[in-house]
């Protein structure tokens, strides 16, 4: 296998562990806290998880290890979309397992949760795992999006574990994956299988966090990667001085990525979906907000700028959400076939006009034709519009252009507006993990094995105090049920982990809010540059501005 000089060098990097995990397994004891309860719907969640609900949070401390000595055979699963650092979770788990007992075994189930159901696996050894240390990607065993949620799947999983003598499963994933982990843990406990389930918090979107989980892994690296590219675009923008760049970044449900990138790079505009929803902003109001910046900068001789657009922002625009709902109804059942059979866009447009309410048709009519047609592209498995396919960066630049032309006609704008478009998504999901993510992920994996060794089930590996140096990080665990509430999914009440949206009264947004007026009219760009792995600590080990602001004293 050919490897780059950086990959070769990163093999030699030794991830930093929290202080209490640095002195050997034998010197780690457990401190149990108070019993926990779910964030909402306590009675319903307790009824669904009678064997795993209400357990205490725990913290690992220096002291005599009182866990029972036994051979551990552990299975690990990578679930959902890739996030930088996933390999180091597996490496940390493997190293802790082998340090405790060289006879311990780690199975890697291939292709995500389906690997467990289909019994597709590999058994890790030193030679194989060493190829993936401190590298990006999930190619060590692959990932997948199969959900573990049916009794039949749980029964098969139980049989596979029994076949291999597996004592614990570690599921590395986001909110949905860890919800599945909690349900699987409950099943294993209810059926006395003796198999534990531990989760690890992964997602570049940053929306798996709460008072206990300060940050999901991958968020640090992904936002640094996007911010490098945004900074490069800003520098080009400030050099050429003739383009407005509209940059869409990942974040379907929450705007954490967009906000962190804005804090790092100080663009002229950054939309925050949660604010759009709070203020019930219309597409027209958002376009006017951006056009105001374009016009003011133009009046000062600056016909250039940068706007950051969160991937899912259109879903937070109330009138657009209603439009989506009406389109879903319009194409329900056989009506979709009737629509698709129409020969021309004009025919389809007439069909749409007849089927939408007057209010939704008014919203539809202002959309550029390309965006209109994107709303009628292939549906998701439930027959709904795939909002993620909408090129919102092009939508907003087109709406801004219309606003500026109206101002030009009214004599209030005379500048030039030349938009360019970018989508930064997959570029950030498999980057070489930053030192922070390499350390954090290794710690999460190492810590996951400690939870297994002490017999915990249905827990999430937890490492906190992350804004401090790694030596001061605190390792422990929390019951996954603590993060859960009941939500309506596809017509049924389902227990799910509540997504963490941007808090508009939180320190990161408040800082952004206090500076964005200046950034909108002046050129205050910041150029973060590439992720640094070697050099001064203040450059190489720095974490996100979001985390720093949330924990500043």
From TrEMBL:
Record-annotated site: Important for catalytic activity and substrate specificity: 176
Organism encoding this protein: Muricoprocola aceti
Catalytic activity of the protein: beta-D-fructose 6-phosphate + diphosphate = beta-D-fructose 1,6-bisphosphate + phosphate + H(+)
Top EC class of this enzyme: transferase
GO function terms (MF aspect): diphosphate-fructose-6-phosphate 1-phosphotransferase activity
Major location category of this protein: cytoplasm
Superkingdom of source: Bacteria
SUPFAM superfamilies named in the record: Phosphofructokinase
Metabolic or biological pathway, per its Swiss-Prot or TrEMBL entry: Carbohydrate degradation; glycolysis; D-glyceraldehyde 3-phosphate and glycerone phosphate from D-glucose: step 3/4
Required cofactor(s): Mg(2+)
Phosphofructokinase domain: residues covered: 74-315
Residues that bind diphosphate: 81
Residue sites binding Mg(2+) per the record: 175
Protein location: Cytoplasm
Keyword Transferase found: yes
Family to which the UniProt record says this protein belongs: Belongs to the phosphofructokinase type A (PFKA) family. PPi-dependent PFK group II subfamily. Clade 'Long' sub-subfamily.
Residues carrying the site annotation Important for catalytic activity: 202
HAMAP family noted in UniProt: Phosphofructokinase_II_Long (MF_01980)
Residues given in the record as substrate binding sites: 203-205, 242-243, 250-252, 311, 426-429
Protein name: Pyrophosphate--fructose 6-phosphate 1-phosphotransferase
Keyword vocabulary terms for this entry: Cytoplasm, Glycolysis, Kinase, Magnesium, Metal-binding, Transferase
Job of this protein: Catalyzes the phosphorylation of D-fructose 6-phosphate, the first committing step of glycolysis. Uses inorganic phosphate (PPi) as phosphoryl donor instead of ATP like common ATP-dependent phosphofructokinases (ATP-PFKs), which renders the reaction reversible, and can thus function both in glycolysis and gluconeogenesis. Consistently, PPi-PFK can replace the enzymes of both the forward (ATP-PFK) and reverse (fructose-bisphosphatase (FBPase)) reactions.
Regulation: Non-allosteric.
């Amino acid at each position: 296998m050919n490897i780059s000089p950086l990959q070769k060098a990163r093999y030699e990097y030794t991830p930093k562990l929290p202080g209490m995990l640095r002195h050997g397994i034998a010197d780690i004891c457990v401190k149990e806290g108070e019993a926990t309860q779910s964030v909402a719907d306590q009675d319903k969640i307790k009824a669904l998880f009678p064997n795993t609900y209400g357990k205490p949070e725990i913290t690992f401390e220096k002291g005599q290890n009182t866990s029972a000595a036994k051979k551990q055979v552990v299975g690990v699963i990578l679930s959902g979309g890739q996030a930088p650092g996933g390999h180091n979770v597996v490496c940390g788990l493997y190293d802790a397992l082998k340090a405790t007992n060289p006879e311990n075994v780690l199975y890697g189930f291939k292709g995500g949760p389906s690997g467990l159901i289909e019994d597709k696996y590999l058994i890790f050894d030193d030679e194989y795992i060493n190829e993936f240390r401190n590298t990006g990607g999930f190619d060590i065993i692959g990932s997948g999006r199969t959900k573990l949620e049916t009794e039949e799947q749980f029964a098969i999983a139980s049989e596979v574990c029994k076949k291999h003598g597996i004592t614990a499963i570690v599921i590395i994933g986001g909110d949905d994956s860890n919800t599945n982990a909690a349900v699987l843990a409950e099943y294993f406990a209810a059926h006395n299988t003796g198999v534990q389930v531990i989760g690890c918090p992964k997602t570049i979107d940053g929306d798996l966090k709460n008072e206990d989980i300060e940050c999901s892994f991958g968020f640090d690296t992904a936002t640094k990667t996007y911010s490098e590219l945004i900074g490069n675009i800003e520098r080009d923008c400030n050099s050429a001085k003739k383009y407005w760049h509209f940059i869409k970044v990942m974040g379907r449900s929450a705007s954490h990525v967009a906000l962190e990138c804005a804090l790092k790079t100080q663009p002229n505009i950054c939309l925050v979906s949660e604010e759009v929803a709070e203020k019930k902003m219309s597409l027209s109001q958002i376009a006017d907000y951006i056009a105001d910046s374009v016009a003011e900068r133009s009046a000062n001789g600056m016909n250039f700028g940068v706007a950051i657009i969160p991937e899912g922002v259109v879903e937070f625009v109330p009138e657009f959400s209603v439009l989506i709902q009406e389109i879903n109804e319009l194409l329900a059942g056989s009506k979709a076939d009737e629509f698709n059979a129409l020969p021309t866009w004009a025919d389809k447009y007439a069909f749409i006009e007849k089927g939408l309410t007057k209010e939704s048709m008014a919203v539809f009519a202002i959309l550029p034709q390309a965006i209109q047609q994107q709303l009628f592209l292939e549906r998701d498995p439930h027959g709904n519009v795939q909002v993620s396919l909408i090129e919102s960066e092009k939508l907003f630049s087109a709406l801004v252009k219309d606003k500026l032309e109206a101002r030009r006609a009214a004599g209030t704008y005379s500048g030039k507006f030349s938009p360019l478009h970018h989508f930064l998504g997959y570029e950030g999901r498999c980057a070489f993990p930053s030192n922070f993510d390499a350390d954090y992920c290794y710690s999460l994996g190492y810590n996951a094995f400690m939870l297994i060794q002490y017999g915990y089930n249905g827990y999430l590996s937890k490492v906190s105090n992350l804004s401090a140096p790694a030596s001061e990080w605190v390792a422990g665990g929390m019951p996954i049920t603590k993060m859960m509430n009941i939500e309506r999914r596809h017509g049924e009440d389902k227990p799910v982990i509540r997504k963490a949206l941007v808090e508009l009264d939180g320190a990161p947004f408040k800082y952004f809010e206090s500076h964005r007026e200046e950034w909108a009219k002046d050129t205050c760009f910041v150029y973060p540059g590439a992720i640094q792995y070697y050099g001064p600590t203040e450059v190489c080990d720095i974490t996100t501005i979001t985390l720093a602001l949330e924990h500043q004293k």
